[in-house]
Amino acid sequence: MSNTQLIAGINTAGSAKLFEAACRTIPGGVNSTARATWSGWTPYPLFVKDGKGSHLTDVDGNEYIDYLLGLGPMIFGHRPPRVTQAVVDFIQQRGTVFALPTADEARLAEKIIAAVPSVDQVRLCNTGTEAVLYATRLARAFTKRSKIIRFEGMYHGFSDGVYWSKHPAIDKAGPDKHPIAVAQGPGMPKGVEENLIILPWNDADVLADTIKREGDNIAAVLTEPVMCNTGCILPKPGYLETMRELTSKHGIVLLFDEVITGFRLGLAGAQGRLGIKPDLSVFAKGIGGGFPVAAMGGRADIMALVATGKVSVAGTYTANGIAVAAANAALDELNTPGLYQKLDAVSDELRAGLGKVLRDAGLPAYVVGVGPLMQVWFAKDEIHNYRDAERHADQHMFRTWWEGMLSKGVLFHPGAYENLFVSTAHTHADVAATLAAAKQVAAELARSV
Ligand SMILES: Cc1ncc(COP(=O)(O)O)c(C=O)c1O
């Protein structure tokens, strides 16, 4: 078998063949950047046969314990019976798109509002990108200000207004304390970045100085409450509290992007777990059990602009039958007593276990995360923001780790800036198998450094 038909020593000839064919008709052979070769899936991504619960099988018949989980939405694992059945029932018995409301939408809104105390009212969207786009527009309309603070290393979807400074080359991105906006690529309209202020995350002084200087022009501070798009980085103690205080004092909308953390770190998301009440929030991956649905919600006085039609929030497919049926069923399931405790217990076992395995092997590595969300940093120093990660994280070692784990049947994204996700379908046995694999891979890695 040629090298091009192997990834991490595994036969992936079927994926290789499908990728070659896909590249003839699909630019890059995939339908999203995170699946592309330039995101780490070299020489090609694995092509999926199917997933079931915590496991995924590729077209070559290789089976993996899946911590990629669709990059987050599969909170119940693959093919969750209750959510899947609810969608099948809805589309078979009622339809999909009506351009008229259904009673199911208000039921869903009630569940979201009951789960997240900062949300008085909520509008559905299809994706996280849309939800962020609407929420930033709403914040600008509400405050009658134009600028948005956005943090280097975060990702808030791919719309022109925010697809800046995700992972810029730091030698081209200005000083550490005052980064300049770097477009994700060509094609962004000129001048959009004038409405963005890019800051390093986890630096309360820089945030305070910026708000002091420019507060009257700032509509919103847009942040993930836990940084999930440069690996996993936790907020420093007091940082989000300071952010809350400063934004309240200056009439700035605090906008939490809980696309990843929402309904994953608990029913009330990261904000519930960390005890911070934002003004607006966006949710996506956690609420649909794997079906495309997102939501934007928050303070009634801000959402009132949507109620009057002053700020138009539209969409042919918003609140379509699939989305609403899936989210209603997902939220019912997430409300199962003890569900998050169990999910946390399995996740904590994995996080603690991985940390121990890496430590015992003497590797310069540690695990950062909260609940069913985590990443391994191969680094000697602490990482509190994007530039720390660029400077301290050993991407090469991460790649070797990824290959080793894949070769032993454990799947996660090959990029060090992504995360491992745990679902309610993952078992203690999955964790034990993962840790056994990790022990071997860590020993091999230790020998090689
Ligand atoms: C924090 C965050 N915000 C927004 C988005 C965009 O969501 P979507 O891919 O549903 O458009 C993502 C996607 O990964 C995300 O991680």
Largest sheet: 7 strands, mixed
| Poorly predicted ranges | none
- What strand order characterises the main sheet? 6-12-11-10-9-7-8
Distance N terminus to C terminus? Answer: 29 Å
Proportion of helical residues: 25-40%
Tally of extended strands?
Answer: 16
Envelope shape: globular
What ligands can be seen in this structure?
pyridoxal-5'-phosphate
| H/I helix tally | 13
Q: Look at the structure and give the mean pLDDT.
A: 97
The second-level CATH architecture of the largest domain is 3-Layer(aba) Sandwich
CATH superfamily of the largest domain: Type I PLP-dependent aspartate aminotransferase-like (Major domain)
**According to CATH, what is the topology of the largest domain?**
Aspartate Aminotransferase, domain 2
From the helix content, strand content and strand pairing, which structural class follows? alpha/beta
Estimated share of beta-strand residues:
5-15%
For this structure, what is the CATH class of the largest domain?
Alpha Beta
Tell me the number of structural domains.
Answer: 2
- Calculate Rg over CA atoms: 22 Å
H-E order: EEHEEEHHEHEEHEHEHEEHHHEEHHEEH
Q: Strands, helices and their partners?
A:
Layout: E1 6-7, E2 10-11, H1 13-25, E3 48-52, E4 55-58, E5 63-66, H2 81-93, H3 103-115, E6 121-125, H4 128-143, E7 147-151, E8 196-199, H5 204-214, E9 218-223, H6 239-249, E10 253-258, H7 269-274, E11 280-283, E12 294-298, H8 300-307, H9 321-334, H10 339-360, E13 366-369, E14 373-377, H11 386-392, H12 395-407, E15 410-411, E16 420-421, H13 428-448
Parallel strand pairs: 5-15, 7-8, 7-9, 9-10, 10-11
Antiparallel strand pairs: 1-2, 3-4, 4-5, 6-12, 11-12, 13-14, 14-16
This protein binds pyridoxal-5'-phosphate.
Pyridoxal-5'-phosphate is lined by residues 71, 127-129, 132, 155-157, 224, 228-229, 257, 259-260, 284.
